Sequence to fold (565 residues):
Amino acid sequence: MKAFKFDWFILPLIGIAVVLLMWQISSKTWAKELPTPHKTWEASKDYVLKPFEKRGEMDQGILRFTWYSLILVAKGYAIALIIGTPIGFCLGLSKAFTKTFDPIIQVLRPVSPLAWLPLGLVLFLGAGKQASELGALFTIAICAMWPTVLNTAVGVRAIPQDYLNVAKVLKLSRWKTLTKVMIPATMPYMFTGFRLSLGIAWLVIVAAEMLTGRPGVGGFLWQEYNALLYEHIILCIITIGVVGFVLDRLMSLVESRFKTA
Amino acid sequence: MPYLELKSVSKGYGSNGSRTEVLRDVNLSIEQGEFVAIVGYSGAGKTTLMSILAGLIRPDTGSVTLEGREMSGPGPDRGLVFQNYSLLPWLTVAENVRLAVDQVFPEKTEAGRAAHATEFIEMVNLAPARDKRPHELSGGMRQRVSVARTLAMNPKVLLLDEPLSALDALTRANLQDEIARIRAQQKQTVVLITNDPDEAILLADRVVPLTAGPNATLGESFIVDLPHPRDRKALNHSPRFRELRRDISEYLLRSRQDRHATVTRKLILPDIDPEDLSVPRNMLGRTRPLRSSEAREATVEVSS
Fold:
């Protein structure tokens, strides 16, 4: 089909319309409990139109919940990057380090956030009221770390020998070689890792909030499920999806700034 | 006493089983201020020789001495211009040069170092491009940046590793003239490695052929007694230039022909291959030597 003038705008709208139609049909036929798009909107209106209102601990505008979730994600993500990047560098630089820790990393990497969270809560049991937040941070950090670790390691291994030869001929000190040559050369790989990590951190936050019942998008979702308010579940799913999409776009913008020829 | 000297240098790659000697018994002595060009086939070990001169790799035997001191590693006293430019793509032209200047002249003031870098960027006529990044420059411009970066280190010896081989013919001619000009200005000791005998004769005081590898070594020197500055147009008509070019080409061709006198013969080996002890042993235990029947068919080349 030939591209027409507003295809970038019209075609996605058609896609949305198709999905809404299927949703409508489903809720009328085989999934009677599923609220229709209209009912969902009616029930969610308050949360969307007054996104920052706070009526109670678990009854707040949707962006306010998102904000809580984002703050927690930001903290956990920061921990993941601060720990993950140096580990990635060590893996990339040292064969012995790789041989020592690679098996452990490969085993820990596929573990689900749902499995980490209870351990996180146990670890910070002594923290009292803080336990759920620290547990959630632990889970986010440990789950989101791996793409950063592995991509940084690949990036370090992929540094062209020519750049290292330049450093050798100039007799750059180890520290200068690291900061002036190796880190800039690894940047593009690191940012790919950072972007993947952010995606995972956002996935984990929902699970973590659901299990701990913290105020946030995930906690809200779980509470409304228990309260049989199914409309709000759909609202939460859409919010989570949109926020994840926006985060990914922002990261790829940052990433493209660091792409060197 | 020679300024830069290579004494019976050899270098090989690979371990016992499949070892190839790239360079064997290479001797070269260069006087201060001399421009020596080493001409050889591609794959003959030219870059290996240059890496040894620069100290990036260590020879298996023999020694490299500069001003009588033995060299053990790389350093800014031997400025290497890489074949593929090796500019850092995230730095601008000026920053690439500054990286070298800052490293070699830490005692100078900030302004002094900036002026020093600018001087060399201007020397290679790149002042308008000083804030561009390497990917915005043409191949010829990148190589000029690389030359500027190297010259800015004030090296005792300038090592040019096929600096122009990746450029088109016109740009190459242009840069050859520029190298000749800079060299006349700086009076530096230069070692140029190239696969182009014309380029070697045009620029150098002495041309040394590198015979075809493996086991490449340096042949007898050809002194280029043509007066500087040399004009490439006039040179084409100079009988001495043509004579030199003929001699060098013939020498190289002959060295190659000698190599061709090898036969390929299949050898029937005993049923057990010797174990290669240089291969690291398997973690799970000693590996058994391979039986020939399990090994893939091997063709062994034997020089007659």
In short: Chain B touches chain A through 24 residues (CB under 8 Å). The helical segments of chain B are 46-54, 93-104, 110-123, 139-152, 169-186, 197-203, 232-235, 239-260. Residues 1 and 294 of chain B are 57 Å apart (CA to CA). DSSP finds eight helices and twelve strands in chain B.
